[in-house]
Write a structure and sequence with these properties.
Keywords: Transferase. With about 170 residues, this protein is α+β, with helices and mostly antiparallel strands. It is built from 4 helices and 8 strands; from the N terminus they run βααββββαβαββ. It has a domain of about 120 residues: 3-Layer(aba) Sandwich (Aminopeptidase), CATH 3.40.630. The longest helix has 17 residues. The radius of gyration is 15 Å and the shape is globular. It starts with 6 loop residues before the first strand and ends with a strand.
Length: about 170
C-alpha cells in the first residue's frame, strides 16, 4: 500500500459476489486458524452474501479496483440488539456493522481499521449518530480494532447461535 493507491468505498454488486464469497471463506479459515469459534458453523455463507447485495447491505473497500474488504452495513435493523444484557449508549437511529472480511491479499495492512474510519464518515454523511457492532469473545483481532477505534463495550447479545460482545460508538 502506498499513498498513490486509489481507495474507494462503494456498494457491492452481484458481479462482486464470487470475489466477496472467496474473501469471506478466507476469513472463515483465518478465524479457525486463530482458534476462534466465530463463523465456524456454516454462517456466513454464499446465500448471506447474495442477500446482503440484493438488500443493498453489502459494501466493498477497493484498492486500485481490487476488493480488499467486504462489510455489511444495516440501518436500524438488528432484532438481536433489542434484548441486550447491558445497555446501549443511544436509542435513536444506528448502523450495524456485520460480516467484516479482509482479503488475504490485504491482510495485516490496516485495512479493517481504515474500513472503520470510512464507515464512520459514511454513517455521519447519512446523519445517523451511532454505530453498533458485535463480535465473538475469541475474535481478538476485531476486539482490538474496536478498542483502538473508541467503541464502548455495552454488554452481550445473543446472535448466530451464541453470546456475542456488543459495542457502540456515538458519532454526533
Amino acid at each position: 500500500m502506498t499513498h498513490d493507491d486509489l481507495i474507494e468505498f462503494r456498494k457491492a454488486t452481484i458481479s462482486d459476489k464470487d470475489i466477496i464469497w472467496s474473501i469471506i471463506q478466507q476469513s472463515i479459515e483465518r478465524r479457525r486458524i486463530d482458534g476462534s469459534q466465530q463463523w465456524q458453523n456454516g454462517y456466513p455463507n454464499e446465500k448471506t452474501v447474495e442477500s446482503d447485495i440484493s438488500k443493498d447491505f453489502g459494501f466493498v473497500l477497493t484498492v486500485n479496483g481490487n476488493i480488499a474488504v467486504y462489510v455489511a452495513l444495516i440501518f436500524n435493523d438488528e432484532p438481536a440488539y433489542n434484548s441486550i444484557e447491558g445497555a446501549w449508549l443511544t436509542t435513536g437511529e444506528f448502523v450495524v456493522v456485520h460480516r467484516v472480511a479482509v482479503s488475504e491479499n490485504f491482510a495485516g495492512k490496516g485495512m479493517a481499521k481504515k474500513l472503520f474510519d470510512i464507515i464512520e464518515d459514511y454513517v455521519k454523511s447519512q446523519n445517523v449518530k451511532s454505530i453498533k457492532v458485535d463480535t465473538n469473545y475469541d475474535n481478538l483481532a476485531m476486539l482490538k480494532i474496536l478498542e483502538q477505534k473508541g467503541y464502548t463495550y455495552c454488554g452481550e447479545v445473543f446472535l448466530a447461535g451464541g453470546v456475542r460482545k456488543a459495542f457502540e460508538k456515538v458519532l454526533i
